[in-house]
Amino acid sequence: MPRLPTPTDFPPSLHLDIIPPPNNSPPINILLLLHGLGDTKAPFTTLARSLNLPETACLAIQGLHPIPQIFLDSEPSTGVASSGVASSGVASSAFHWGDDVLIDEGKGEIEMDSGFEKTREVLGSVVRMLMEGCGFPARNILFYGFGQGGMAALCLISSSSSPNPPPPLSTLEFGGVISIGGRLPSSSTSSSAKCKTPILVCGGSNSTQITRQAIDGLKERFGTVEYVRWEKRGDSMPGSREEMLPLMRFFARRLRSRVGVPEGAVEV
Fold first, then answer.
1. What region holds the Phospholipase/carboxylesterase/thioesterase domain (predicted)?
2. Which of 37, 86, 194, 262 is most deeply buried (CB count within 10 A of its CB)?
3. What are phi and psi of 138, to 5 degrees?
4. Residue 166 resides in a domain
């Protein structure tokens, strides 16, 4: 029987919020929420509560590294902004998941794909704690990432490097990954066997990270890839019921329940 994690399960250097299931019921599933480039965990803590997923605890995790103030004091074109906190180009705090802060000189923006080695190591230890310390099967662990946070989740789940202890996470079937505007990082390791974890990736109809090339790369690495193309510019978070519906359907298919699968539903 899984248990709700506590702050003492994780290193003090890792900043996260633990959101229990609705009505404080015992958790069956756990959802890890990873914010975008230039944000904090706060909006995703709010998101976790608003999702109100039954029998599902949530961890809203903050990016491992603060963005240097020099970038936060610059013009909005630096692109340190994903889900609102730093959208004006100025913020008191903003974090990222990359190994470094790199600038795309062509776009004048911070590059999202800046290496995820440290993030993969830290998130891997979080997942191992949830599995071995809290009793969550891999199948009951899901991820929701926005932008660079989605890239971090995809990098973690597709990793074929062997942790201590093994097996590699890419050989396990997790509950799933939802990535909003986050593609597979270029540094992701390849493998002859496709990852078993199903993913849902969503993006805009133009000015998007989710290009045809990005989709092809995901299909090469994952066995089950669902792509939703929103008719809007860019890769912002879902802003309507219509945009949110594919995400809720994905949750309905992949979340486990003590009461079983409702009549007429299909579990995959």
1. 95-211
2. 37
3. -55, -40
4. yes
What total of structural domains would you count in the chain?
Answer: 1
The reply to whether 195 falls in a domain is no
Q: How many CB atoms lie within 10 A of CB 204?
A: 18
Contacts of 152 (CB under 8 A, 6+ apart): 34, 97, 116, 119, 120, 123, 145, 182
The 3-class secondary structure across the chain, one letter per residue, is: CCCCCCHHHCCCCCCEEEECCHHHCCCCEEEEEECCCCECCHHHHHHHHHHCCCCEEEEEECCCEECCHHHHCCCHHHCCCCCCCCCCCCCCCCEECCCCCCEECCCCEECCCCCCHHHHHHHHHHHHHHHHHCCCCHHHEEEEEECHHHHHHHHHHCCCCCCCCCCCHHHCCCCEEEEECCCCCCCCCCCCCCECCCEEEEECCECCCCCHHHHHHHHHHECCEEEEECCCECCCCCCCHHHHHHHHHHHHHHCCCCCCCCCCCCCC
What is the full per-residue pLDDT of the chain (268 aa) written as tens digits?
Answer: 999 999 999 999 999 999 999 999 999 999 999 999 999 999 999 999 999 999 999 999 999 999 988 777 654 433 444 443 333 333 458 999 999 888 777 777 788 999 999 999 999 999 999 999 999 999 999 999 999 999 999 999 998 765 556 688 999 999 999 999 999 998 776 667 899 999 999 999 998 999 999 999 999 999 999 999 999 999 999 999 999 999 999 999 999 998 754 444 444 3
Residue 16, strand partner residues: 61
